[in-house]
Write a sequence for this structure.
């Protein structure tokens, strides 16, 4: 399986925090939604950490529309040290999450799409498991919050593509440097 991470980010590199979540609102439009749907429709399964799973599993099943129609039926995997049971067509990864993802990638075909950021994302990059990183850069400065890949070893990536989706948002797609 190929592993793609897709995440929203501010101009100053923030991916979470009150200023970030408030600032990125209002940038979505038709082209944004088309790109999100394209990414989802190409996925064979989703991967999330516990925090993302908690938010997504309580909001997406109730949503109408094309994105909900694409995300809800997909098989899902969640990395968690404490979660033992999951709903929403989700399997909890057992044992070491990075090892479990490596096994998933080796045992299946297709695309595994990861949402969310944090220590799990950092561990996947450090382990060399990420095949593509899609950064949805939003044109605002959050000023504070959580950075994307703070604290990991230096990692070089190649720019694979740039997609403009309107309202000043661009998707920068990176692959590991060969």
């Amino acid at each position: 399986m190929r592993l793609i991470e897709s995440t929203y980010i501010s101009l100053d590199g923030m991916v979470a925090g009150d200023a970030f979540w408030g600032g990125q609102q209002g940038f979505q439009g038709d082209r944004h939604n088309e790109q999100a749907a394209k990414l989802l429709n190409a996925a064979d399964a989703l991967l999330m950490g516990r925090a993302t799973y908690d938010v997504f599993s309580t909001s997406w099943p109730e949503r109408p529309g094309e994105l909900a129609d694409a995300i809800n039926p997909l098989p899902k995997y969640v990395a968690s040290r404490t979660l033992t049971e999951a709903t929403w067509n989700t399997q909890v990864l057992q044992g070491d999450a990075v090892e479990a993802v490596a096994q998933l990638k080796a045992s299946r075909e297709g695309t595994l799409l990861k949402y969310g950021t944090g220590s799990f994302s950092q561990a996947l990059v450090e382990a060399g498991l990420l095949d593509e990183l899609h950064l949805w850069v939003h044109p605002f400065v959050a000023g504070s919050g959580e950075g994307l890949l703070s604290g990991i070893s230096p990692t070089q990536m190649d720019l694979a593509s740039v997609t403009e989706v309107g309202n000043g948002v661009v998707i920068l797609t990176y692959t590991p440097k060969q």
About this structure: The chain has a mean pLDDT of 92. The two ends are 18 Å apart (CA to CA). The CA atoms of residues 37 and 67 lie 6 Å apart. The domain at 2-176 is CATH 3.40.430.10 (Dihydrofolate Reductase, subunit A).
